[in-house]
Amino acid sequence: MTDIDPIHCAHCGPGNSMVEAYTDDYGYWKVGCGACGSHSGTLHPNHKPDAKRLVIESWNRRPDVDELRAQLAIVIEDRARFPDRPDGIGNMISAHYGNLKAKAETAEEHCRRLHLEKTVGIREARLSALEEAAKVADEAAAMRERLYQENGASLNASKAAQALIIAANIRAIQSEEQL
Q1: CA within 20 to 30 Å of 6's CA: 24, 75, 90, 149, which one?
Q2: Residue 121 sits in which domain range?
Q3: Of the residues 52, 82, 112, the one at which a domain ends
Q4: Using one digit for the tens of pLDDT, what is the confidence trace for 126-150?
Q5: Highest taxon of the source (predicted)?
Q6: What is the pLDDT of residues 44-86, one digit of tens each?
Q7: d(CA 116, CA 133)
Q8: Where are the alpha helices (DSSP H) in 22-153?
Q9: Is the dihedral angle over the CA atoms 19, 52, 5, 41 positive or is it negative?
């Protein structure tokens, strides 16, 4: 009826399998391994006249156990390189979290330095503006005294001194805004 024989069992390997094609109690052809109990699908001769040949060809198309073992070794090696166990993922996540935490701390320290530089810069600008205002106030007081002694016009000198002080304050505010 058929001239092909079933090959060895894909699960047991070529050395220790007892593979045969047979019909069950209802007349369905199947191929099975007596060692491990695996079997092919079934096919009845009423559905296909060459059912035995088709069942054996289906069994023979199953992958070879040695080839499966080689593919399994490749998969195991890949999994070893890229661990997918929860503890491996936890280690990877904690390392990534550590990197992010270090970056955040560095950025925070940089912000503190910038804030300190800005604060020191503003403080220095205020001090120089106050020194400038003190000089202007001294000059205004000296001008007021001189004008008073020369002309007796203390009202105009007082207004001039106030104008100089206002100008110095405006310069101080502008220097703060630039920082």
Answers
A1: 75
A2: 86-178
A3: 82
A4: 777 777 777 777 777 777 677 667 6
A5: Bacteria
A6: 777 778 888 888 888 787 766 677 788 888 888 777 766 655 5
A7: 25
A8: 51-60, 65-81, 86-150
A9: negative
